[in-house]
From TrEMBL:
This is Reticulon. PROSITE patterns: RETICULON. It is a multi-pass membrane protein. Keywords: Endoplasmic reticulum, Membrane, Transmembrane, Transmembrane helix. Pfam families: Reticulon (PF02453). The lineage of its organism: Eukaryota, Metazoa, Chordata, Craniata, Vertebrata. It comes from Seriola dumerili. It is found in: Endoplasmic reticulum membrane. Residues 47-234 form the Reticulon domain. GO terms for biological process: brain development; endoplasmic reticulum tubular network formation; neuron differentiation. One of its GO terms (cellular component) is endoplasmic reticulum membrane. It comes from the Eukaryota. The chain crosses the membrane at residues 61-90, 176-197. InterPro entries: Reticulon, RTN1-4.
Amino acid sequence: MCVCFSCIHLSSNYICQALRNQIALFTCTPPFTWTRPDDRSFLLHVSIDLLYWRNVKQSGAVFSSVLLLLFSLTQFSVVSVGAYLALAALSATISFRIYKSVLQAVQKTDEGHPFKAYLEMEIALSQDQISKYADKVLLYTNTCMKELRRLFLVQDLVDSLKFAVLMWLLTYVGALFNGLTLLILAVVSMFTMPVVYEKHQAQIDQYVGLIRTQVNSVVGKIQAKIPGAKRKEE
């Protein structure tokens, strides 16, 4: 188990180094000066590169690390997994610190602390960043609450029926899979479906269009037969 979490830690070190290189290229500034004009476009840029496997090594490292972590959670508790991860990280950093100290003593050099750049890196969130993220969370929460109120109080009968059918289907999904299994399937889909869609976009769009036409036809017939059900555009 310790070997597994050591692999996770080594992979995470590689991922951090790769992300720092991408940040330096993206912002045209040296590492550890993480200034960028738009956080959203930066995160979108990195996410697309990972999910579309632009760099196979980076995507493979992230994909395998996340899967290994999720599979570990299926066998061990969150506390155990967190403790093993912390031990693996501490084992790596302490070993590296001792190795560099011995190396400096043998070579009689004074390079300083091996993690000096990381220790001096600014990681604190500013008040503006906290306010911005808090506003976003508040906006999403209010939107979700309004949408749930609209569905449960049947503002639109067809939308409420769709929601009821979705919840009914989820009862079967919940009987077959637990939350972690669904999360694993979601991660696998995130790292496979974009690539498959990119390679077979024309065929997939054709079949999705056919399915959407059939669904809209069925929904239209239901709306026509249910009293009080109207299309939103009306």
